[in-house]
Amino acid sequence: MAVDIKNLNHNQLNDLITKAQARQGELRKEKVAKLREKIHALIKAEGYSFEDIFGNARGGKTRRSGGTVAPKYRNPADPEQVWSGRGKRPRWFNDALKAGKKEKDLAI
Protein backbone atom coordinates (compact mmCIF):
# COMPACT_ATOMS: atom_id res chain seq x y z
CA MET A 1 0.00 0.00 0.00
CA ALA A 2 1.71 3.12 -1.21
CA VAL A 3 0.33 6.47 -0.16
CA ASP A 4 1.25 9.53 -2.16
CA ILE A 5 1.77 12.00 0.67
CA LYS A 6 2.46 14.88 -1.72
CA ASN A 7 -1.22 15.00 -2.64
CA LEU A 8 -2.46 15.08 0.98
CA ASN A 9 -3.54 18.29 2.64
CA HIS A 10 -2.54 19.23 6.18
CA ASN A 11 -5.51 17.55 7.90
CA GLN A 12 -5.19 14.36 5.88
CA LEU A 13 -1.46 14.20 6.63
CA ASN A 14 -2.06 14.66 10.37
CA ASP A 15 -4.72 11.95 10.28
CA LEU A 16 -2.33 9.59 8.49
CA ILE A 17 0.41 10.31 11.06
CA THR A 18 -1.99 9.66 13.95
CA LYS A 19 -3.15 6.37 12.44
CA ALA A 20 0.45 5.31 11.72
CA GLN A 21 1.53 6.05 15.28
CA ALA A 22 -1.45 4.13 16.67
CA ARG A 23 -0.62 1.15 14.46
CA GLN A 24 3.03 1.36 15.52
CA GLY A 25 1.91 1.17 19.16
CA GLU A 26 -0.30 -1.85 18.41
CA LEU A 27 2.58 -3.67 16.69
CA ARG A 28 4.87 -2.96 19.62
CA LYS A 29 2.31 -4.33 22.10
CA GLU A 30 1.87 -7.46 19.98
CA LYS A 31 5.63 -7.98 19.81
CA VAL A 32 5.98 -7.53 23.58
CA ALA A 33 3.17 -10.02 24.22
CA LYS A 34 4.81 -12.61 21.93
CA LEU A 35 8.17 -12.08 23.62
CA ARG A 36 6.58 -12.43 27.06
CA GLU A 37 4.98 -15.71 25.97
CA LYS A 38 8.34 -16.98 24.68
CA ILE A 39 10.05 -16.09 27.95
CA HIS A 40 7.37 -17.79 30.05
CA ALA A 41 7.54 -20.88 27.82
CA LEU A 42 11.33 -21.01 28.12
CA ILE A 43 11.18 -20.65 31.90
CA LYS A 44 8.54 -23.37 32.13
CA ALA A 45 10.52 -25.66 29.81
CA GLU A 46 13.52 -25.35 32.13
CA GLY A 47 11.34 -26.33 35.10
CA TYR A 48 11.25 -22.97 36.86
CA SER A 49 8.56 -20.44 37.62
CA PHE A 50 8.65 -16.73 36.86
CA GLU A 51 9.02 -15.99 40.58
CA ASP A 52 12.01 -18.36 40.82
CA ILE A 53 13.84 -16.34 38.19
CA PHE A 54 12.69 -12.78 38.87
CA GLY A 55 11.48 -12.88 42.48
CA ASN A 56 8.05 -12.08 43.86
CA ALA A 57 8.05 -8.34 43.16
CA ARG A 58 7.21 -7.68 39.53
CA GLY A 59 8.85 -4.45 38.51
CA GLY A 60 8.58 -2.87 41.94
CA LYS A 61 11.47 -2.03 44.15
CA THR A 62 11.56 -3.65 47.51
CA ARG A 63 11.93 -1.28 50.37
CA ARG A 64 14.29 -2.15 53.13
CA SER A 65 12.85 -1.87 56.57
CA GLY A 66 15.67 -0.05 58.24
CA GLY A 67 16.36 -0.83 61.82
CA THR A 68 16.95 1.77 64.42
CA VAL A 69 20.02 3.94 64.08
CA ALA A 70 22.21 4.53 67.10
CA PRO A 71 21.88 8.04 68.50
CA LYS A 72 24.68 10.42 67.64
CA TYR A 73 23.71 13.49 69.70
CA ARG A 74 22.29 13.96 73.20
CA ASN A 75 20.56 16.96 74.74
CA PRO A 76 22.71 18.10 77.69
CA ALA A 77 19.66 19.64 79.41
CA ASP A 78 17.59 16.44 79.08
CA PRO A 79 19.67 13.26 78.55
CA GLU A 80 16.52 11.38 77.48
CA GLN A 81 16.43 13.39 74.24
CA VAL A 82 18.72 11.97 71.59
CA TRP A 83 19.05 12.38 67.83
CA SER A 84 20.63 10.04 65.27
CA GLY A 85 21.80 12.87 63.02
CA ARG A 86 19.34 11.85 60.32
CA GLY A 87 16.28 13.72 59.22
CA LYS A 88 15.09 17.08 60.46
CA ARG A 89 17.03 18.54 63.37
CA PRO A 90 15.13 18.49 66.64
CA ARG A 91 14.22 21.79 68.26
CA TRP A 92 16.54 21.22 71.23
CA PHE A 93 19.46 20.70 68.83
CA ASN A 94 18.81 23.96 66.98
CA ASP A 95 18.31 25.83 70.27
CA ALA A 96 21.64 24.52 71.56
CA LEU A 97 23.42 25.64 68.38
CA LYS A 98 21.86 29.11 68.70
CA ALA A 99 23.02 29.24 72.32
CA GLY A 100 26.62 28.89 71.13
CA LYS A 101 27.20 25.14 71.46
CA LYS A 102 28.90 23.24 68.66
CA GLU A 103 27.80 19.93 67.18
CA LYS A 104 30.79 18.17 68.70
CA ASP A 105 29.68 19.42 72.16
CA LEU A 106 26.37 17.59 71.71
CA ALA A 107 27.89 14.40 70.32
CA ILE A 108 27.61 11.26 72.41
TrEMBL record:
SUPFAM superfamilies: H-NS histone-like proteins. Residues 59-88 are annotated as: Disordered. Its main location: cytoplasm. The keyword DNA-binding applies. Keywords: Cytoplasm, DNA-binding. Residues 61-108 form the DNA-binding protein H-NS-like C-terminal domain. One of its GO terms (cellular component) is protein-DNA complex. This is H-NS histone family protein. It comes from Dyella telluris.
